[in-house]
Amino acid sequence: MFEVQSGVVPKAQKVILYGPEGIGKSSLAAKFPNPVFIDTEGSTDKLEVNRMKKPTSWTELIQMLDWIKNQRQFSSVIIDTADWAQRLAEQEVCQQHGVQSIADIGYGNGYVYMKDKFGNFLDKMQDMADSGINAVLTAHSQITKFEDPGEMGAYDRYELKLAKRSNADVAAMAKEWADTVLFLNYRVISVKADEAGRKFKAQGGQRVMHTTHRPAWDAKNRDSLPEEIALDYSSIAHIIPDMIQAAPQSQIPINNPTTVVENEPILEKNDNPPSQETINNVEQSLSSVPPEYLPRELRDLMISNKVTEDE
């Protein structure tokens, strides 16, 4: 009784774009199909893009995601940036526990609570992708010292600027969530600084994207991209679909106050006025219809199980 499918399944992409400040993360994300930005950092003012106002709380950020998913007006949602979204999660945890700093919650539990919230956020972004909307996180990079047991000594590497603790590794969780992780940076070339070749200096400035993991950075892709590509949207355009545009109009649910809800009782036209008992039954039935602002999946469950909003 199981169905077997074959071939490539087209779906929206989950992408992380990270790199140093000013490299062009937001500008690249703005080229995604029909994007809308949730500007947690407040840095897209100079971009000609659709944007939501900067969320002032974690709850508002989650509500924005629900609204975008239900409206289905955009093909891509951009969280700019993920590390500033993490700050909102930390603030939410602090408010819930009445502390000034997340570190004030004993035994490192504050970071565990924050990781749980960020996990719920990634679940929301997963739902976004499952509904056909590309889910994109931009993030800053940070340079950390890395000790490789298989190598002699330590070396510097670029990582996501997200929490990385033994009990709350948000960076690892985000990388696992993504289909594609692209590291944006400048290509640096070492040139001789003296005739003897004893001194070198760095030159360069060409912006590139790294698509595969290396000791010096995190990256991955599932589309056989070259290891290094130009920092230009045309380099990745072929792997980013526009599922909303491609979907037949009849399949796109539209929030409409006049939409008839399934199982909603409808009175047939009758010359004779309805009895008071009929009116009471209709009013009672209408009161059990879930309101439009609730998520569609929840409304369907409420209707099928005859659960009222108060319940």
From TrEMBL:
Instruction: Give the residues annotated as coiled coil.
Output: none
Q: Name one Pfam family in it.
A: AAA_24
Region: Disordered; residue ranges are 266-293
| Origin: domain of life | Bacteria
Does the keyword ATP-binding feature in the UniProt annotation?
yes
Q: Supply the source organism for this entry.
A: Marinilactibacillus psychrotolerans
UniProt xrefs under SUPFAM superfamilies = P-loop containing nucleoside triphosphate hydrolases
- High-level lineage: Bacteria, Bacillati, Bacillota, Bacilli, Lactobacillales
Keyword flag Nucleotide-binding: yes
Q: Which UniProt keywords apply?
A: ATP-binding, Nucleotide-binding
Q: Where is the composition biased (Polar residues)?
A: 272-288
Single annotated GO MF: ATP binding
Query: Under which name does UniProt file this protein?
Result: ATP-binding protein
